Every structure is written in structure tokens, then in C-alpha cells.
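Render this sequence as a predicted structure.
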Amino acid sequence: MKIVSWNINSVRFRIDIVEQFLREVQPDVLCLQETKVVDADFPAEMFRSLGYDHILLHGQRMHHGVAIVSRVPIVEDDRLDWQANREARHLGARLPNGVRIENVYVPAGGDIPDRELNPKFGQKLDFVERMTQWSSALTVPTILTGDFNIAPLPSDVWSHKALLKVVSHTPIEVEALDRLKNSNDWVDLGRQFHPAPARLHTWWSYRSPDWTKNDRGRRLDHMWATGDVAAAATSHIVHEPCRSWLKPSDHVPIMTEFAW
């Protein structure tokens, strides 16, 4: 089973590359973040035309919204408000084998890494703390995936030194994500198959005129699994070429394959 996570940065605007990806890669489950569309306007017809008949939505205008589309039956499990303001940033589902998939879009946190000067940064830290509380009580096989908006390791960014004070790689964010990871027996599947310090970027800013030349990337997108699920993982791929497709997202899809 191939499970993919992708911050698509507007599913309607980028529907052509979503279709291209589905035709070429043929994942079984696709978790989308930042869909930027209410449920009624989600472009479900394209997905169904390719056999993705099982569609779960938690939509919202502007910069939020998550969705899970699948070729195998899935059952909606929960929509947790880790942001505590009803932003659509989480959607959970159960696979036929009982494994849960939790699709999450952690807020970016603004530009200043100080909760007193920048409330958005405080919201981000509180979001991760609520996830940690949830994780601590988790007792079922689970995949946690999505745009975490944190690059935790020095090798997860193009320059550890240059980004230490840049939101997404500050020590306080890394410590918060480490607490989340240590709150259960989570396995970082990206680093399981591509151990640090291997380069493993999933995001490149639109501000760079040539992302391939500068390669100033960060690993903001992650797929974790509880130990029992991670044992079934056979590969993890970052589909980097998608960053060069027509009208790309600034994120690329990540995919883990499981042998169940």
C-alpha cells in the first residue's frame, strides 16, 4: 500500500499536477494539506474518475483545509482542533486493517520566533503541544503525516547555521517536535530509510528564482508511524521532480510503501 502526503497549496489551482501525479505514481491513499477550498467545491470528480472513490474532507477557505482520498475503503475517525480556533488542520481516518491515518497541517508560525512579539508563533507551539498530549494517550497503530512546518535536524535544512533563528528550524520548535516524537514510539520514516545527514528536502520557497540552482530546501513534510506500523514500511520516497512541474506547489509529495 502506497500512502502519500502532499501540501498542495490549493487543490483546485493545481488539479492538473495532482492528476498527473496520481496517474504516474498510483498511490493508494493521498493526504492533502492546504486545500484552500470548502467541501462543496472540492474537485472530487477528477479523483473518482481515477478510482479514488473514498473521499474525506475537512475544507476551509484561505490557507487551511485537509483531505484524504483513497482507492481503498476508509472511515472517518476524527477532526481534532489542535489549533483551538476551529481552523481545518486535521483529519483522521481508519484503513480496513485498523491502522489510523492522521493527516495534519501544522501552522507556519509567522516570521518572528517569539510568542510575545508574534502570537502566531505561540499558536504553533501550542498546536504541537496539544498533539503531544493526544499522542501520549495513543494506543492504536497509527500513521501521522502531513506538513509539520518544522525541519528538526541540522541536515533537514540547506544551512543549519543560517536558519537557527528562522521559524521552522529554531531550537524551541525542534524541542517541541522532539517532545511529540518521544511521547510515543514514533518512527520517522523519512530518516529510517534516508538516515541523517542525507539530504532530504521537501519544500523550496517560491522566492528563489531557480530552486534547483540554489537548493535552499527544508524538510517540512513528514510521515511518522508507531513502531508496529513502521515495521511494515518498505520504502520512503520524496518525489522531488514535482517541484518543477507546471504551476507547482512549494512542497513535493512524500510517499511510504507498506507491505501488509
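Summary. The first strand starts at residue 2 and ends at 7. The first helix runs from residue 15 to 25.
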